[in-house]
C-alpha cells in the first residue's frame, strides 16, 4: 500500500529535483577523479520544531522511493547538456553526461525508522558511499525528511492536545501545492491524526477518508432545514451537518429537527460541525441542546484555524468537542514553516585501504559546528522502555568500557552512562545501493509514533518550555571533535 508514495507523481525521473550546485559539484568531483572517494554524510536538525522537546521522524518511505528510482533519463541529460555558462559554453562536457547516463547509486544508507522520536543533532540518515553519489542525494533527502518530520511532529502535538478525541486533517486547500498537500496527509497520519479529507491520500496510502459538507451546500438551498434533510437523505448513516452558515445555535435547532425526522425513519444523525464563533461556548450550548432533545450520541465536530494550543485552551474552557478538523495550521506547520535539517560531510577516505579522514564544518556557534565520524545513535532506556538519554558515537572507533556523554553545546555538562539497556536507532536500509530493509506500512509507523511519544516523559512532551532531553556525544568523540575544531580554527593574533 505505502511502498511507493512518489511513483507516478512527477513522471519517470525525479533526479533533477535538486539544486544546480549538486550537479556542478558532481562534475567537479568527476573532473578531479574524486567521484569514488568514500564519503559519509549525516542528515540531522539542530533544534526540535515548534519550540518543542522532540520530533517524530518521517519522510523515509518517500526517500527510499526516490533513491530507488534514481537515474538520469534521456530528457534529464538533454536538459543538462543544454545548460550554458556565462561565455555560452556548455556547462557540462558530453563525457560527464555519458557518465551520468549509466550512474546507479551504490551507497549504504542507514536511517532511523519513521515514527521514531528524535532529537537535535541525531543523524536521521547516514549516507556512506562514493562522494559524488552521496552529494547528489542531499537536496532531495532534505526536502523529503525536513517537511515530513515537521508535519508528523505537528500532528503528534495535535494528537497530544486532543487526547483520545478524533482528529481529521482537512488541509489540502491550504497546503503548499499538490505534493505539499499529499505528503502532508501522509505525514499527518503517521504523526497521529485519524484520517484525512484528501481523497488521493486515501486512494494511494489507504488513509481513512472523512468529511462533512461546506457552507455552499446550505447556501444552495437558501435555508438550513431543507439542506440538512437533503444531505441526510443522501447519506442517512454518514451525515454531519455544518450548522454555522447563518446563526450557529439556530443551526443546531435545525439539525435537531432534521435528526428527529431521520430517527423516525430509523437513522441517527452522526454529528454537527461548528466552524466559527466562540467554539467553547457554542459547543457547550450545542451539547446541551442535543442532549435535551435526546441526541446524546450525536458528535460535535469543530474546525476553524485550530492547532494544538487552541485545542488545549478549548478543553480548559470546558468545550464539548468530540472531533477536531484541522487544516491550515497542520499542513503548513503554521508556526514554524520549515524544519532546518542539514546534510553534512563527516568523513572521507581516498581509498578503501586508507584511514578515514574526519571532516568538520566550523561555525561561530558550537551548535552549528558539525560532528565528525561515522555516527550511530544509541538510545538508553529504562526497563519499561522510557528513553533516558541518547549517545552519539563513532562506529569506526572502539568504545571505552566506561561511557560518558557530553553535551555537544556545553562540554562542561556530562553524565556517565550506567544503564545497559539500549537500542541502536540507525538501521540499515540500503547496502551497495540495494534495498535491504523491510519497509513498515504507514499504519505500523503510525503505531510506532504513538508508542514512542507516549513513552516520553511528560516534561519533554509539554508545549511550554519543555525539558531538554539529554543527547550527548560519547566522550572520546567529543574530545576528538574539540581537537579537530582547534586544529581547523585559524589562529588570529590579538
Ligand atoms: N473559545 C475560544 N477560545 C480561544 N479561541 C477561540 C475560541 N473559539 C474560537 N477560537 C478561535 O478564534 C479564532 C477566530 O475565531 P472567529 O470567531 O473570529 O472566527 P472567524 O474565522 O472570524 O469566523 P468566520 O468563519 O465566521 O469568519 C479561530 O482560530 C478560532 O479557532
Ligand atoms: O480552518 P482550517 O484549520 O484551515 O480547516 C479547514 C477549513 O476549511 C474550510 O473552510 P473554508 O475553506 O470553507 O473557509 P473558511 O476559512 O472561511 O471557513 C473548513 O470549514 C475549515 O474552516
Ligand atoms: O469535510 C470537511 O468538513 C472539510 C473538508 C475540507 C476542509 N474543511 C472541511
UniProtKB/TrEMBL annotation:
Cited InterPro entries: Aldolase_TIM (IPR013785), N/Namide_PRibTrfase (IPR041525), NAPRTase_C (IPR041619), NAPRTase_N (IPR040727), Nic_PRibTrfase-Fam (IPR007229), Nic_PRibTrfase_pncB (IPR006405), Nicotinate_pribotase-like_C (IPR036068)
Entry's Gene Ontology molecular function annotations: nicotinamide phosphoribosyltransferase activity; nicotinate phosphoribosyltransferase activity
GO biological process: NAD+ biosynthetic process via the salvage pathway
Pfam family, any one: NAPRTase_N
SUPFAM superfamilies: Nicotinate/Quinolinate PRTase C-terminal domain-like, Nicotinate/Quinolinate PRTase N-terminal domain-like
Pathway in which this enzyme or protein is active: Cofactor biosynthesis; NAD(+) biosynthesis; nicotinate D-ribonucleotide from nicotinate: step 1/1
Keywords, ordered alphabetically: Glycosyltransferase, Ligase, Phosphoprotein, Pyridine nucleotide biosynthesis, Transferase
Gene Ontology CC: one annotated term: cytosol
EC number(s) given by UniProt: 6.3.4.21
Protein name: Nicotinate phosphoribosyltransferase
Organism of provenance: Hymenobacter roseosalivarius DSM 11622
Amino acid at each position: 500500500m505505502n511502498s511507493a508514495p512518489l511513483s507516478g507523481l512527477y513522471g519517470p525521473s525525479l533526479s533533477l529535483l535538486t539544486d544546480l550546485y549538486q550537479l556542478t559539484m558532481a562534475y567537479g568531483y568527476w573532473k578531479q577523479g574524486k567521484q569514488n572517494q568514500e564519503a559519509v554524510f549525516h542528515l540531522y536538525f539542530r533544534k526540535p520544531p515548534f519550540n518543542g522537546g522532540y520530533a517524530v521522524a518521517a519522510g523515509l518511505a518517500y526517500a527510499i522511493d526516490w533513491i530507488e528510482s534514481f537515474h538520469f533519463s534521456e530528457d534529464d541529460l538533454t536538459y543538462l547538456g543544454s545548460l550554458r555558462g556565462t561565455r555560452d559554453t556548455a556547462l557540462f562536457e558530453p563525457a560527464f553526461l555519458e557518465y551520468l547516463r549509466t550512474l546507479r547509486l551504490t551507497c549504504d544508507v542507514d536511517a532511523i525508522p519513521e515514527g521514531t522520536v528524535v532529537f537535535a543533532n541525531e543523524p536521521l540518515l547516514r549516507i556512506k558511499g562514493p562522494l559524488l553519489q552521496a552529494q547528489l542525494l542531499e537536496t532531495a533527502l532534505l526536502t523529503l525528511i525536513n517537511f515530513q518530520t515537521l508535519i508528523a511532529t505537528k500532528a503528534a502535538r495535535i494528537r497530544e492536545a486532543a487526547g483520545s478525541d478524533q482528529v481529521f486533517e482537512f488541509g489540502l486547500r491550504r497546503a503548499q501545492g499538490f505534493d505539499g498537500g499529499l505528503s502532508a496527509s501522509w505525514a499527518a497520519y503517521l504523526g497521529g491524526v485519524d484520517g484525512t479529507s484528501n481523497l488521493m491520500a486515501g486512494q494511494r496510502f489507504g488513509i481513512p477518508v472523512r468529511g462533512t459538507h461546506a457552507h455552499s451546500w446550505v447556501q444552495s438551498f437558501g435555508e438550513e432545514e431543507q439542506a440538512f434533510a437533503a444531505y441526510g437523505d443522501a447519506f442517512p448513516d454518514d451525515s454531519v451537518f455544518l450548522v454555522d452558515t447563518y446563526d450557529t445555535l439556530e443551526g443546531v435547532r435545525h439539525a435537531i429537527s432534521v435528526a428527529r425526522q431521520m430517527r423516525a425513519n430509523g437513522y441517527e444523525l452522526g454529528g454537527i460541525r461548528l466552524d466559527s464563533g466562540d467554539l467553547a461556548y457554542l459547543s457547550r450550548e450545542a451539547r446541551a441542546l442535543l442532549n435535551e432533545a435526546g441526541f446524546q450520541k450525536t458528535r460535535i465536530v469543530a474546525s476553524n484555524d485550530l492547532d494544538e494550543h487552541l485545542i488545549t485552551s478549548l478543553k480548559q474552557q470546558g468545550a464539548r468537542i468530540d472531533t477536531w478538523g484541522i487544516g491550515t495550521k497542520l499542513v503548513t506547520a503554521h508556526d514554524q514553516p520549515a524544519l532546518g535539517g542539514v546534510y553534512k560531510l563527516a568523513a572521507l577516505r581516498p581509498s578503501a585501504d586508507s584511514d578515514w579522514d574526519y571532516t568538520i564544518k566550523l561555525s561561530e556557534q558550537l551548535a552549528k559546528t558539525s560532528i565528525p565520524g561515522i555516527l550511530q545513535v544509541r538510545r538508553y532506556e529504562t526497563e519499561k522502555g522510557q528513553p533516558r538519554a541518547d549517545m552519539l558515537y563513532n562506529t569506526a572507533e572502539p568504545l571505552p568500557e566506561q561511557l560518558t556523554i557530553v553535551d555537544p553545546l556545553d562540554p562542561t555538562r556530562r553524565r556517565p552512562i550506567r544503564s545497559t539497556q539500549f537500542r541502536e536507532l540507525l538501521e540499515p536500509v540500503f547496502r551497495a545501493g540495494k534495498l535491504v530493509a523491510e519497509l513498515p506500512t504507514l499504519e505500523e509507523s503510525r503505531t510506532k509514533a504513538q508508542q514512542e511519544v507516549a513513552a516520553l516523559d511528560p516534561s519533554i512532551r509539554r508545549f511550554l518550555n519543555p525539558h531538554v532531553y539529554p543527547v550527548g556525544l560519547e566522550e572520546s568523540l567529543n574530545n576528538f571533535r574539540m581537537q579537530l575544531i582547534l586544529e581547523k580554527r585559524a589562529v588570529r593574533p590579538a
